[in-house]
């Protein structure tokens, strides 16, 4: 076959394979076109800020690196390994430093469908064992301080079951694949309800309202930008938090709170991501803001390709 013809056919195949952006109808479909062994390296930062009225009372920053590798693929699924390493924090507290490094050298293997949307954490049992062993290594440093022991117990609970891990312990992975599997129209705003896992009461998922849009199609860089906001039902959030705090007080043998003590909680999460047409994330920032009675807790997570 003529070499020029071969090259032309190859180009057509490539265009068909990676034609997720369609400028004719201004759409983008987020699909993972990945090969076995493909790896990308990411830097992640998580900043936690607490404001009490106008005063900043907490400002903590944690950073770490993740190697994301395609370790298996079939006609309708991918197995993807997330390898966590090089944790750092700006905190001078030694205990916080140890808690920050709990996931150092941890491997999480997820399964996605053929489009790259998350289906499950495949090695959740290994993840649970790994974290419990890490926690047990420095429990002796607590010297029987109940509040710190309870903190470690809460962390253990986050990794105690498949449900807990998938709903609360892989938030960076969930952020990464937020938009995978969907097809979006430029400047079209989608509004829909979505139930969220409730780690305090798994049998009572929380209702939320989601607004999502495709904001940009960049043909030159072969990428697009998606944004979303998700607001949790305030009444449900307040009730489930109050019930959890009552149970916590019972466990700690302390005075239980009154509902008016915690006020009305609000929870708003916004996520903006630039994604390459191959399905690899380029940059993403997610901001979660929880507020009640003049206190605002913010978490800002940034994931960027290294």
What is this entry, summarized?
The chain is α+β, with helices and mostly antiparallel strands. It contains eight helices and 14 strands.
Structure notes:
There is one protein chain. This protein has 306 residues and is an alpha+beta fold. The protein has helices spanning 3-17, 94-100, 124-137, 146-158, 162-169, 171-176, 234-252, 259-262; strands spanning 21-22, 27-29, 39-52, 55-74, 77-89, 107-113, 118-121, 183-185, 189-196, 206-218, 223-232, 266-276, 281-292, 295-305. The longest helix is centred in the C-terminal third of the chain and has 19 residues, at 234-252. The strands form 2 sheets. Strands 7-6-5-4-3-14-13-12-11-10-9 form an 11-stranded antiparallel β-sheet. A 3-stranded antiparallel β-sheet has the order 1-2-8, with no helix packed on it. The radius of gyration is 22 Å and the shape is globular. The chain is built from 8 helices and 14 strands.
Descriptive terms for the model:
alpha+beta, eleven-stranded antiparallel beta sheet, disordered N terminus
Order of helices and strands: HEEEEEHEEHHHHEEEEHHEEE
What is the distance, rounded to the nearest whole angstrom, between the alpha carbons of the first and last residues?
40 Å
Question: What is the residue-averaged pLDDT?
Answer: 87
Number of helices: 8
Percent helix, as a range, is: 25-40%
Number-wise, the strands total: 14
Give the radius of gyration: 22 Å
Strand residues, percent:
35-45%
Structural class, by secondary structure, is alpha+beta
The poorly predicted ranges are 1-19
The shape is: globular
The major beta sheet can be summarized as:
11 strands, antiparallel
Strand numbers in spatial order across the main sheet: 7-6-5-4-3-14-13-12-11-10-9
């Amino acid at each position: 076959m003529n070499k020029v013809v071969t090259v032309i056919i190859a180009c057509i195949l490539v265009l068909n394979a990676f034609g997720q952006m369609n400028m004719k109808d201004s759409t983008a479909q987020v699909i993972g076109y990945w090969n076995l062994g493909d790896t990308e390296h990411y830097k992640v930062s998580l900043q936690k800020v607490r404001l009490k009225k106008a005063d900043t009372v907490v400002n903590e920053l944690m950073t770490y690196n993740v190697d994301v590798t395609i370790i298996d693929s079939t006609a309708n699924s991918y197995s993807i390994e997330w390898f966590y390493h090089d944790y750092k924090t700006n905190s001078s507290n030694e205990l916080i430093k140890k808690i920050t490094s709990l996931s150092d050298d941890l491997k999480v293997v997820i399964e996605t469908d053929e489009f790259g949307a998350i289906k499950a954490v495949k090695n959740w049992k290994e993840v649970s064992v790994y974290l419990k062993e890490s926690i047990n290594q420095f429990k002796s440093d607590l010297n029987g301080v109940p509040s710190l022991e309870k903190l470690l117990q809460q962390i253990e609970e986050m990794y105690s079951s498949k449900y807990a891990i998938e709903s609360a312990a892989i938030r960076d992975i969930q952020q990464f694949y937020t938009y995978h599997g969907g097809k979006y129209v430029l400047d079209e705003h989608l509004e829909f309800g979505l139930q969220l896992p409730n780690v305090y009461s798994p049998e009572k998922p929380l209702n939320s309202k989601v607004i999502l849009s495709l904001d940009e199609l960049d043909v030159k860089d072969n990428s697009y930008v998606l944004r979303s906001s998700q607001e949790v039902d305030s009444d449900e959030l307040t009730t489930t938090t109050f019930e959890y705090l009552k149970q916590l007080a019972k466990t700690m043998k302390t005075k239980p709170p009154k509902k008016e003590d915690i006020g009305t909680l609000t929870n708003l999460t916004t996520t903006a991501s630039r994604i390459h047409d191959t399905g690899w994330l380029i940059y993403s920032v997610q901001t979660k803001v929880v507020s009640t009675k003049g206190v605002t807790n913010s978490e800002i997570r940034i994931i960027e390709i290294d």
